[in-house]
Amino acid sequence: MKLTAELLAHCDAVLNPLRDHELDLRGLKVNAIENLGVTRDLNDTIDFTDNDIRYLGNFPLLKRLQHVTATNNHIARIDSQIHKQLPYLHSLTLTNNAVADFAQVAHLARLRRLEYLSLMGNPVSRKKHYREFVVWKVPSVRVLDYKRVTDRERQRARELMDDGGKPSALAKELLSETTVPDVPEARESKARRPLTEEERSAIERAIERAQSLEEIRRLEDRLRLGYALDTLS
Which one, out of 1, 99, 175, 221, has a CA that is 20 to 30 A from the CA of 181? Predict the structure, then answer.
């Protein structure tokens, strides 16, 4: 389903328990964020939970918006310009999505007011050094995956990821590990196509043959996402 201006006009905009103006877009099965300009930047919170969104981006400039929830989607990519679209974003909940690369997480670094972030249930959250990387790369975050960031964690993150004000060798290595091409959204349809039954069966067979837990998780995430990337080996 498309997130049309007409659909947005019929969605509930309520005053939530925190007395924020919240736009409820839960469970509409929309596959892309679009047409939010018609909301006239009147919302403090937007809830995209339980949709089919694969790309976090394409927002107009929304200076009022402080909270975005997009739990239970298929988001694998994050717009590198999201800081220009949502300059006052305070909390971002991406629980149970498909973000697999540290390079995508790095796009959140310039959200200077982002203090609450959840990436639980994303493939990247199971990688080694995940928490240290996020704490280092997005220093404004005070609570990550519902757990407060401690001073000790920040010190550990700097020791691992910072080399005299530049990314350490480890940080560079993590940033270079990409499974999803960082292509503009306009070109995404060319890079992504649905899995055929043959491809799905091949992934299932590969899971059976996998030799490590990490490989099993990677293949299961690809199968769960339900899309093949032509550029993915």
Answer: 1
